[in-house]
Write a structure and sequence with these properties.
The structure is a single chain. By secondary structure, the protein is α/β, with parallel strands linked by helices. It folds into 2 domains: about 210 residues, Rossmann fold (3-Layer(aba) Sandwich); about 200 residues, P-loop containing nucleotide triphosphate hydrolases (Rossmann fold, 3-Layer(aba) Sandwich), CATH 3.40.50.300. Helix content is about 35%, strand content about 15%. The strands form 3 sheets. Strands 5-6-4-7-8-3-9 form a 7-stranded parallel sheet, with helices on both faces. Helix 14 links the parallel strand 12 and strand 13. Helix 8 crosses helix 10. The radius of gyration is 24 Å and the shape is globular. Bound molecules: adenosine-5'-triphosphate and magnesium ion (MG).
Length: about 475
Amino acid sequence: MTNETPRPNRSGKPRFQGDHKPRGEQGAKPQFRGGNAKPTTNHRRHREEPEEKFIRRAIPDIDTPFTRMGIDARVAVNLPPMGIEAPSPIQEKSIPGIVAGRDLLGLAQTGTGKTAAFGLPMLTRLLNIGRKPEPKTCRALILAPTRELATQIAENIDAYAAGTAIRQFRVVGGASINVQTMRMERGVDVLIATPGRLIDLIERGAVDLSQTKYLVLDEADQMLDIGFIHALRRIAKMLPRDRQTLLFSATMPKLMEELAESYLSDPLKVAVNPPGQAAAKIDQGVHFVTQGDKATLLAEYLGKHRDELAIVFGRTKHGCEKLSKLLEKWGFKVASIHGNKSQGQRERALSGFRAGETKVLVATDVAARGIDIPEVAHIYNYDLPNVPENYVHRIGRTARAGRDGRAIAFCAPAEIGELRAIEKAMKSQIPVVGGEVPFEASKIRERGGPAGRPGNNNAQGARKRPARRPSRAPKSVQRD
Ligand SMILES: Nc1ncnc2c1ncn2[C@@H]1O[C@H](COP(=O)(O)OP(=O)(O)OP(=O)(O)O)[C@@H](O)[C@H]1O
Ligand SMILES: [Mg+2]
């Protein structure tokens, strides 16, 4: 089974899903995806094929805000049905430069359309050059930190490129490397990868990066961070020097920016807002609570919005699993996603959540970056992240594309340091919405807080609450 993501049925040829034996595409390898869905083949589509192919391959004669910025009409025509009518600020600022061939560092808040900001002009350039990839090569490479984000980017690229001859392929861990090796035999226009699996494929001689003229690092600051930098350095060495490199993120700590420069040549730097800020429409709050009371408090918050989607971020895989079991016991529709789950379980958890079948997703930072589920209305930082920038990414899973959302951080006495680091990174204070401000936090806030602004706190007379035994379900959510 390949993990090539299905695309809208561009050519009119049948797409296959599940374990059914697919028929190949004119001698090419069959395309199908995981899951148990039924094949979508039907004979009527076969008969319509030549006509549809002709219509869809023609260059549409359209004039849109995107074509005026230089986006190929064959790509621009796919945007309105996706709800993308006019460019967002990051798209407006970065697309013309990328179309012109410049390297670019693009910084904009979460949920503001960075994927299209690099995807649309990159596809435009690929279409303009318009040649076929050689075996094992890719013409463009997009690197992302997690499998789920790589999958989502692949789906976006498919949607933007629908009706064109551009083909993408996604290579991530947790899927068969042999299938990925076989698929790469043909070469691909756009390869979307997590760095670890890409290195594995390169070592097997299955991928050749010598023809790759476009490199995108999504979530660039994380890709330059310690967990990925070694893989990235190895990959970068194999790419031609003469390439276009695009780096995008919502956060870019100073140190990372210096590192980023070494991957770029005479780059344009586009920052829509001062980098590191949370998305504008997130209603944030911090609730001070002891560690032992967190689960009960979470259940109280969740119980108020049972029909709305919420993501709960925990720090450890084990902690997330335990919490998700507890919430399930208390009657919530919950799934969890973290590194101890199989790839199948991870995919099912995310797709069930996307579909609204489960309302609560308990996750480690594996779901902190890039994941776009517009219906997510609430974020709970059950544990505060120890990488401060990840707070902005975690809460950025809500309030996407102009919507609003709420984010509550649970801060235990031992997490004051993390809270301080987060507020310092964001250069703003998070309003206190509940609990008693521990003495340590009140001192920081009285001094003007990490952001140097007077805090809105109720610090007077604050004291630590004694720790209570682990959580019981609050009355409102107790079930028999
Ligand atoms: N110009 C646009 N108009 C309306 N919606 C848009 C536009 N561009 C993108 N979107 C939508 O906005 C949502 C967020 O886009 P995207 O995932 O690219 O954000 P992002 O900036 O990469 O966020 P993050 O920092 O969390 O990765 C998507 O659902 C996308 O379809
Ligand atoms: Mg993104």
